[in-house]
Design goal:
Length: 150
Amino acid sequence: MSLEPGAGRKTKYEYLYHIADAKFRAYGCTLEEVFGNAALAMFNVMTDTTNLKHEIMQQVDLTSHDIETLLVDWLSELLYLFEVEGIIFSKFEVGSIKHTGDGFSLSAKAMGENIDLSKHSFDTQVKAVTFHELKVRKDDGFCVQVVLDT
């Protein structure tokens, strides 16, 4: 899996063909940036996040045994907050991803607004973040590949 087809790529993420689910690759210069872009890609599978306000902020702190599991845990936590708290996110500030003795830790903020069905329309329901075809790669920058169960 190549990070970028061309030098100087500005793309945060791209959607890939998958027969039954939603699949994407996200890109970033750092792990923090690629995790933020993966979260943005996941929410844009569900709805257009372009005009969302950043009225609500949720702190997310996680620890996982490896970087792939941390990515799944990060996206799964955001999906949980979406489903249980009724918040749709569109801005992510991943402050740090650190290698610890036991694995990896993440500290981040997610910003968005409460779901209002009179103004938000949802195209696709994301049921879960999967480990299927999951990849985290470092080349000149970082690239992750994720399949969402829809």
